[in-house]
From TrEMBL:
Signal peptide: 1-22
Gene3D superfamilies, per database record: Outer membrane efflux proteins (OEP)
Name of the protein described by the UniProt record: TolC family protein
Main location: membrane
InterPro entries: OMP_efflux, TolC-like
Keywords tagged on the record: Cell outer membrane, Coiled coil, Membrane, Signal, Transmembrane, Transmembrane beta strand, Transport
Subcellular location field: Cell outer membrane
Coiled coil: 116-143, 363-419
Domain of life of the native organism: Bacteria
UniProt record similarity statement: Belongs to the outer membrane factor (OMF) (TC 1.B.17) family.
Length: 436
């Protein structure tokens, strides 16, 4: 009975980590990673709040269309008046009601100011567009960041597979060496070299495992997933749209890149700012109305301790004469800002063209590099097989075998990295166009 209890306890202990510390494995493509980042990345949540702020600012600006209404009251102590002759020879004390109060309501409505209110609302709308474009740019940056981390995980998985395959080959070779050693065909140092080769592979595998843990943790946070989630990339490694041509991507960038759209919107902001400045040349026409109630009545003698009420309504016309010479300089400033905005569009387009050109050339290069490294991998594998056959027949020494293995390992790692680099350069090309 005790034996069965011990067996059951050992099974529970063995299964405990799997039951309570199991890691969720999530298979994802690059697009799925990017979409999840857009939904959950904290940076984008902060950027999205700028849009809400800009929209609320537009709503605040629209309030200028509503009338301005003020209500006021005052309570005061009124002292006695003193009447003095014009030669200051005599004075007379005039008793006054000591308690005084006044109540007033005044409303003002802007009728005309050269379209100032509507232009201010339009300017606020342009600033909304800029905040939305800033969010779009941040989305592109976040997508590329998480996809880069995703591809790094993919690269590490491929490298791990390469290391594991080479470790199995090294272990098989070590078995053969040990047989040779037992037969007295090789010395002990040959066995040690084989064991050291495996230890070097184990060290590489350990580094890769820890790097993958770090990337998985960071990527999980960026995607809003539990931090113990293991991301398993399943993106196809096939070339993506390799033959469209650079002109296609350049035109796409001119139409879609958020930086280009922001530059054009900034020019519209400069235009609208000039229109707003020019409204200062216009007079201000406003309607007004109000009612006033005041106590006591001090406009007659004797003073009456009564309320005096009255209302008024009308239209006011005002014009700041100094704007005749001040506005001219402000318009000149606005024109300079518009010229700067136009130059910024040209600069932005040049930067985008250079970025797209570099990204496209690097994408084509990555495809060609992958083909070259694939051929190199095949040659290194062939060299390894030949050297191994020679070594098993005692026609090559251990140093040649290790050299052939290192060449094989390096060529396989280079090709695995090159495959991932093709994907990286493709997504970098999409980012340069603003369509990632």
């Amino acid at each position: 009975m005790v034996k069965y209890v011990k067996t059951a306890l050992s099974l529970v202990i063995a299964l405990f980590p799997a039951l309570f510390f199991s890691q969720e494995i999530k298979q994802m493509t690059a697009n799925e990673v990017a979409e999840l980042a857009v939904k959950n990345h904290q940076q984008l949540k902060v950027s999205a709040q700028n849009i809400d702020i800009a929209k609320q600012n537009t709503n605040v600006t629209k309030l200028q269309k509503l009338p301005t209404i003020t209500a006021s009251t005052s309570q005061f102590y009124l002292g006695d008046a003193v009447a003095i002759d014009k030669d200051f020879s005599n004075s007379t004390n005039v008793p006054m009601p000591h308690y005084g109060s006044s109540y007033a309501v005044q409303a003002t409505q802007l009728i005309f100011k050269g379209g100032l209110v509507n232009k201010s609302i339009e300017l606020a709308g342009l600033r909304e567009q800029l905040s939305e474009l800033d969010l779009e740019k941040n989305k592109q940056d976040v997508k590329f960041l998480v996809i880069s981390n995703y591809l790094d995980v993919y690269k590490i998985l491929n490298q791990q597979e390469v290391f594991q395959n080479n470790k199995r080959l090294a272990q098989e070779r070590l078995k053969n060496i040990q047989k040779f050693y037992q037969q007295g065909m090789v010395t002990r140092n040959e066995v040690i070299r084989g064991e050291l080769a495996i230890k070097n592979l184990d060290q590489g595998i350990l580094t890769l495992v820890n790097n993958k843990k770090i990337l998985n943790y960071n990527l999980s946070i960026a995607l809003g997933l539990p931090t113990d989630t293991e991301i398993l990339p399943i993106e196809s490694l096939e070339n993506k749209e390799a033959g469209i041509g650079m002109e296609y991507y350049v035109n796409l960038a001119h139409d879609s890149n958020p930086a280009m759209k922001s530059a054009k919107t900034n020019r519209d902001v400069a235009d609208k700012n000039i229109e707003i400045i020019k409204t200062d040349k216009m007079p201000t026409v406003a309607g007004f109305g109000g009612y006033t109630l005041q106590r006591p009545i001090t406009t007659r003698n004797p003073v009456l301790d009564m309320y005096s009420g009255g209302w008024q309504t009308g239209v006011s016309l005002s014009y700041n004469i100094d704007n005749l010479y001040k506005t001219k300089e402000r318009v000149k400033l606005g024109e300079l800002q518009k010229t700067q905005a136009n130059d910024a569009i040209t600069l932005t387009q040049q930067n985008i063209d250079m970025a797209v050109n570099a990204a496209y050339v690097k994408y084509q290069e990555s495809i060609q590099q992958a083909d070259i490294l694939n051929d190199a991998k095949k040659l290194a594998e062939e060299n390894y097989n030949i050297t191994e056959a020679k070594y098993l027949n005692q026609l090559a020494v251990q140093a040649e075998m290790i050299d052939a293995q290192n060449q094989k390992l390096q060529s396989e790692l280079d090709y695995a990295n090159a495959e991932i680099n093709v994907l990286y350069q493709y997504y970098n090309l999409l980012k340069s166009t603003g369509t990632l």
